[in-house]
């Protein structure tokens, strides 16, 4: 099976996801980036994806860098390079027989360009819904795990439970 690589246009998501738009409108762009990275990290881990999140350097000039955070690769492009041009280049380089690239952006021109390079696309809304669905699944699994451990918190130890089970069997036989 092909390795799945998701390349995300970070500011495109921040401009589309409701809670991120709200943070951006409150001039909390750093907080919006942080929330995006945290949510994408959980999504990536659960769905077993490699994720690259790309931000335009034009909104944060002079900080071209690439680093790992929350098991994601975070890229701030060069000052003269847009996130779109970086994404186009990387999608073309990384999409091969062993890796299926999906680009998350709502920019239609960008979507057509990545299609031409053989990559798949997801709109900001589609990715948002996928992330929400995964978050709900994670919450259900966490609840299931909690209740699996619930028995372990019983005041009875295994020996006592075994004796109780034997006694129950004994009493059941007496009824018959």
TrEMBL record:
Pfam family of the protein (one): NYN_YacP
> What is an example of a GO molecular function annotated in this UniProt entry?
DNA binding
Which UniProt keywords are given for this protein, alphabetically ordered?
A: DNA-binding
Is DNA-binding among the key words of this record? yes
- InterPro entries, per the entry: YacP-like (IPR010298)
Q: What is the protein name for this chain?
A: DNA-binding protein
